[in-house]
Specification:
single chain, alpha/beta, TIM Barrel, eight-stranded parallel β-barrel, about 35% helix, globular, binds zinc ion
């Protein structure tokens, strides 16, 4: 974290065109209780046109084991169910910035295995958190995260690595746009990387996503950084705690501190068009069906939409968290 560095001075130099569609595809993180078939039936039950899920037990180091015929059946089920976008999320245990060499090695290995599974399943990408290091070693943590991303992306799959920014938690490698730029620039083959923004994390890190002007400032910063073209995935989670809290606790869409006004402004941003939008929100099927309906409603074009420009947010990094989907803000860095 170098707050004195002017926002927008750093730029990722290699632009990559990644837009695949003109509208957002809305869906949800899906629990895979009954294996791959349950992902598709679960998605159909809540009106999800995009899915994200864990391909293996998120609390274990065991890699995904997906048979070729099961993968083929899954791709066919998705096609039949009209699921237009699929992402895998790396397990909770993965911390690509871990100061523990054994955890770091295992994080890289499990991420590589998960990316291979994403490829087999026809997923667009694998979501990997930017990670968190130990106290007082931000440069070392960034170097470890970058080295890990280099190794993971070296698999050379069609499925890309989507780096998810953190909630400003302690030791987090990247929670702000500027920190994301530094991380991407530290990865030699960064053209293989994409960006995942979690609205709850951004809000917790200090971005004023509860106000249309704040949304405008956030995306203007993203444009100036050169990373806007890398944005492929939005985790649409409302926030249970106040702006800048650095606490990663998700709330249902429109029912937290970001609120409907904030989500409306976010979903109408041009940078978000063509992105996949999935919620990782609490509650049962009914709650998720409602969240998806709300997101689709707010994403519908309306006259006079689009945010403002200019200004800078006041994000500061430093506290712990970094849990994955549906997160309760668990997780000290490992
Ligand atoms: Zn997320
Ligand atoms: Zn979260």
């Amino acid at each position: 974290m170098t707050p004195e560095r002017a926002v927008g001075q750093s730029r990722v130099t290699v632009g990559v065109a990644v837009r695949e569609t003109a509208t957002v595809i809305v869906g949800s993180h899906i629990r895979t209780r009954g294996g791959l078939p349950s992902v598709v039936t679960g998605a159909e039950a809540i009106g999800a046109e995009a899915v994200q899920f864990f391909a293996s037990n998120p609390r274990m180091w065991r890699p995904p084991a997906i048979a070729e015929d099961a993968a083929g059946a899954f791709r066919e089920d998705c096609r039949r169910a009209g699921i237009g976008s699929t992402y895998l999320h790396a397990p909770y245990l993965v911390n690509i910035a871990s100061p523990n060499p054994e955890f770091h090695r295992r994080s890289v290995e499990l991420s590589r295995a998960s990316l291979a599974a994403a490829e087999a399943l026809g997923a667009r990408g694998l979501v990997v958190h930017a990670g968190a290091g130990g106290p007082g070693e931000p440069a070392e943590a960034l170097a470890r995260a970058a080295a890990a991303l280099e190794k993971i992306a070296a698999l050379g799959t069609h499925a890309h690595v989507s780096v998810e920014l953190m909630a400003g938690s302690r030791g987090a490698v990247a929670s702000t746009v500027d920190e994301a730029v530094r991380l991407f620039e530290a990865v030699p083959n960064h053209e293989r990387l994409r960006l995942c923004l979690d609205t709850c994390h951004l809000f917790a890190a200090g971005y004023a996503l509860d106000e249309p002007d704040g949304v405008g400032e956030c995306f203007a910063e993203l444009q100036r950084s050169g990373l806007a073209s890398r944005l492929v995935l939005i985790h649409a989670n409302d926030a249970a705690f106040a702006r800048g809290s650095r606490r990663d606790r998700h709330a249902n869409v429109g029912q937290g501190e970001i609120g409907r006004v904030g989500f409306g402004a976010i979903l109408r941003r041009p940078e978000v068009r063509g992105c996949t939008v999935v919620c990782e929100t609490p509650g049962d099927e009914e709650a998720h069906r409602r969240d998806i309906a709300t997101l689709k409603d707010l994403a519908a074009p309306s006259p006079g939409a689009s945010g403002g420009d200019g200004g800078t947010p006041r994000p500061e990094a430093s506290r712990a968290s970094g849990a994955a989907p549906g997160a309760r803000g668990s997780g000290a860095p490992r």
